[in-house]
Amino acid sequence: MARNKLVYNRSDEVGIVLFGTKETCIDLSKELGGYKHVVVKHDIKVVDEETKDALQNLPRGTAPGDFLDAIVVGLDMLIKRFGNTKGKQRLCLITDAQHPLRDPPQGTKVDQVDTIADQMKKHDIKMDCIVSRESGVHHNSLMDENDQLLYHFRDRSVAKVVQVDTPTSLLGALKTRNILPVTIFRGDLELSSNFKIKVWVYKKTSEEKFPTLKKYSDKAPPSDKFASHEVKVDYEYKSILEPDTVVPPDQRIKGYLYGPQVVPISSAEWEAVKFKPEKGVKLLGFADRSSVPRHYFMKDVNSFVPEPGNTKAIAEASDIARAMQEMDKVAILRCVWRQGQGSVAFGVLTPNISSVKNVPDSFYFNILPFAEDVREFQFRSFSRLPPSSQPTEEQQEATDNLVKMLDLAPPGREEILRPDFTPNPMLERFYNYLDLKSKEPDANPPPLDTCLKRITGPDPDVIDYQAPLIQNLGKSFELKDNPKRKRAQTQERLAYTGLDDQSKKPEDPSAEKAKVIDGQAKKTEVPDAEKARALEAMFPSTEKAGKIGDLNPVQDFETMLAERSSSAWVLKVIEEMKNYTRLL
Fold it and tell me: Is the pLDDT of residue 447 over 60?
């Protein structure tokens, strides 16, 4: 996180507070007492190399850690540093929440959480809380109590709480920056002409793109500290008839290729023919959830929420969502997000029933493809193969088990590589290498980090756990040499490597004599036919030649093609089909 801020958010300020340490070193402890085992490792200041190094060399805690004390210390540092200054202020808490918390001087721990939440709301400070516990840790009453206190921060709308169990998921849960949600649509969800619900639409997910890299100029003198090193590109448009004359913008018009011609179309003509639908979201109908498979979903996911503060809209949206959930239905919508938008979004609306009492029910919206966008790939069934080529029951079962093993969300187990907690390995490697290059310009790419190996390669734990299944799969399929196929592959290699080199090889007298006789009666032939004839002469085919008849030529062609044993046979069959089509 500090590394990415160092590259892209140089003006951000970061501080580090450790809790669970043996010593105590904070101003609050000196002023008010208490707050033991809490240390301010790094004061709030502009992020730099020192900040990154401080995070890379954190000591392991040796004493029980009170996360409420750490939150109070961090909150006090932010208030003293920024006061009432407006800006994005955020606390990031990483804890296992397994140690007892000290009792407050007054009231209960819940009251203390309410007091802290009030101060956070007053100064517009948000908190990201990451609870890191290894899988298999037994929950006790103390851990449950600490979890409830953290969830109380979430209920007060000042914190987001997530739980992780691996270093990889911890790396993915650490967000470099918080993106404020921006609505893409505010208006009516029109179920009918008389029934409309006020909704706001946000982007639920978006593609994390590779950072843009700007051109850098090294022409500025090294002594110039204020050089921007920017590269500016200017374009000039010139006429073919007058290459030395620059065409001004008011005399230029866009042209579009239509075959060999260029068709000029002005912006006014484009506006006249442009499709301009009216802004709005309309219901087209309801469908069974099973009729809309997930692999049809396209692009990003949008979230439909009822208008905040509108109790009528919240109740209506909740009734529709719960009815759809109960009847296992989805809604098909036609959406135009902006006035003058050139495209229409057609998609499916899925209910999202909230499990948090202060969060209303909502919907997820996914773009669906049009008919011409769907690609149906048909695969032949094993039943069409001869019995000798069909898999046995043992082989089918072993293959089914392999497919089930590759499931990232197996029944009874937690999902592997959850999207919310899985970092982009390409971006992480880019940032690591960029950081290394800033220190060592000639450095080679470093080895892949252990956490990233679990993302880019198979999980060793899963492979070890399913080792018997993988071994059983290997035993179910016995590999044997195919002499016929081996001979065919040898002929193909000879055909592709030897045919073009025949002029380099010494020819025997009989071949030379045949070549002279052939040359006297030479006719113009199709290159493919010549190649097929040469291949057939070098490697005579052992298959039955067959013939393409008039009754079912397509089936005859497929049958002949299926009997191939060399590339010469394939070319011969293709030539046979060409001759047949010429006679039509």
Answer: yes
